[in-house]
Amino acid sequence: MENDDQTSARRKFIRVATIGASAACGLFPLASGIPAILDPVRKSSGNTSSVPWSKVAPLLSLPEDGSPAKFEVVQEKVVDAWTTYKDVPVGAVYLTRKEDDVVAFNLKCPHLGCAIDYRKKSNDYFCPCHNSSFGLDGAVTTDNSPSPRPMDTMEAKVEEGYVWIRFQHFRPNIADKIPLS
Amino acid sequence: MKVIFDWLDDRSGYRNLLHEVLYEKVPGGARWRYVWGSCLTFAFFTQVVTGTLLWMFYSPSAQTAWESVYFLQYQVWGGWFLRGVHHYMAQAMIVLLVLHLMQVVIDGAYRAPRELNFWFGALMMGVTLALSLTGYLLPWDQKGYWATAVATNLMAEVPLIGPEIQKIVVGGVEYGHHTLTRFFALHAGVLPAMLVGLVVVHIYLFRKHGIHVKEPRPKKDSYFWPDQILKDAIACLAILLAVVALTLYFRGAPLGPPADPANEFPARPEWYFLFLFQLLKYVPAFWGAVIIPAFLALWIFLQPFIGVTRPGHQLNIGFWWTLIAGSVALTLLAFAEDRENTRHLAAINEANWQAERVLSIVADEGIPPAGAVTLLRKDKENRGRLLFAAHCASCHRYNSHDGRGYPVDDVQSAPELAGFASVEWLTKLLNHEHYISDEYFGGTEFKNGTMARKVLAKYTTEEKALMPRMAKLLSDNANLPYQEPLSEDERDELLSLFYNDDLVFQDGLACIDCHDIDSEEEGYAPDLTGYGSDEWTVAFIRNPEDDRFYGDENDRMPCYGRDNKLTDEEIQILSDWIRSAPAE
What we know:
The structure holds 2 protein chains of 2 kinds. Chain A is 23% helix and 33% strand. Chain A is an alpha+beta fold. Chain B has helices spanning 2-12, 14-22, 35-55, 65-74, 79-107, 115-137, 142-155, 162-170, 177-209, 224-249, 274-279, 285-306, 310-340, 342-365, 373-378, 380-392, 423-429, 432-435, 450-455, 461-465, 467-478, 488-498, 534-542, 568-578; strands at residues 25-26, 222-223. The model of chain B has no long low-confidence stretch (mean pLDDT 93). Chain B contains 24 helices and 2 strands. A two-stranded antiparallel sheet of chain B has the order 1-2. In chain B, helix 21 packs across helix 22 and helix 23 crosses helix 24 (568-578). Chains A and B meet through helix 1 and strand 3 of A and helix 3, helix 4, helix 5 and helix 10 of B.
């Protein structure tokens, strides 16, 4: 009897050891790359104070009547993984003038990120993907608008006749405006 | 739970399959000598998984390959580890291949009815070597670039279609984007797919004929599960630990400076190809590329038939042992020759320097879209070394080498310039013994000039003791970036020594009698105003025959600027480099 117990215990140990060692070998290759795959999550800093100011356009190039004009935003230095670019367009904005002040709207729809059009005829903003529409102040204008929030504004200032903005993207399709970082 | 498994089994029959896989009979019981096949499968599995993960980071083009690998290695969390596991497992795979092959040969497992499987195994070995070769290029660093150039040039040795094969593999005549896209597709797509197919056939054939039992049988028969699998898993675990240990010890796989066709590097393949590399020193490339592989293929094909008889089997074993012994000997010889070769060691050091240098530039300014290689090409420190080596080092030396660390064959015939114009350098210059030595003017006419014969040689012990102070004054003119300037009081005091105001030099002569500092007169000897400064050094390199310097006393120093041998920019880079803190 005792012998049988010993044999069965030994067999059990062998099975457990085999499964353990095989599992370790089987999982190791994938495990060795998991930190690398998760790297983008680690790198989100949550810190938006480092968003640089970009010089966009002369104030005088904006229509005085407050109707919007579209400009591309060029950033001095853009790092894409390993490459450092200089002076590249990173996106576009609608700028509207309010006397000596300027309001900047991101071109991207807060719904799912399509590019918003300005409609001259109805003097409003309209997203051609899912029909969100916005007033000139950026507010949602229809009750059943797919966009959960108004168009995204960005910090803007006028210095020595030029409009500067801090260009940012925001998390899509939620009511709050949370910068992506 | 059981219900789900029952359903799954009913629909798929997986239990039968599992049973089939696990309960393969192992006659004579589980043995360590049977583990190599499983180890190789494990190694290949690791390569497929880690390789797929690496794929998520790699970008195959001449401007992004090195750069994306750099990013993975240095910027991505644990990227170095992932790369290291893939790199060292590839090497483990080669070792395992040899072990598996030798086990099959010694046990006679290649003979009937297993001939076909032996040939498939040989094919798999070829594919694995091709995987190593293609993978070596992908980081697009100097090592991979130059070694692959050699490997692909060997392809051109194939009769009739060789040059076309080479063109197809390289993607043209020059190495570039298409070389990388092709090698990458081969490395990550074509070859692994081939290997997967071959593994399936190999294992199928293995199962068909069962394990080849080495007599005598040590124990009673058992099954693959769990006894043999336990041994296999322990062996795999040992390999894994070795790979992890190597990865941790070397902090991942090496990454050399970015590939540059204009920047020479002594091509060496990975260690397991070194025997072939060494062999090509003795036999024509055609032998290495065609005759030897063809002979090997023929032998492998015939081996099962040769091995039918006992002496034939012994011959086969002897053949492989001889091949291994020969390869080991050639490999050791290759290592030994490189270790003795000072130029090779200098080239390795130079590549290491460039690799570190490019990292520090990237840390400062990032990588431009044109790629990291442009950083080194534009780097003034790197260019300073290159210019010195090309234009100055045949006469001058820098720490006894050519500025890049290479020994120089020509006899030194002009001063050592590491630390040029520093207090230390000038103190030695003003010592007669050093002045007439090869380290300074021993190889020039100035060895017998006025300064040597009539001035330095005549100084008394007390006067000699003043020379370090004189060196301090002169060196202050150089305004070297790594030296503190003198205080005004100290400078005035030293200038009075230069003018010999207090008549400390007993012959009554002052330095100012021949050399100028801050005066309008043109002296007979080189003007020392601003000696060693940026302006002075640039002007001197431009035209040492100017009246301000050697005039018609110049001894062989070329007038680089006056005669358009170097551009103004190059002279400036040289001057900056010579005046920078002396490196090793």
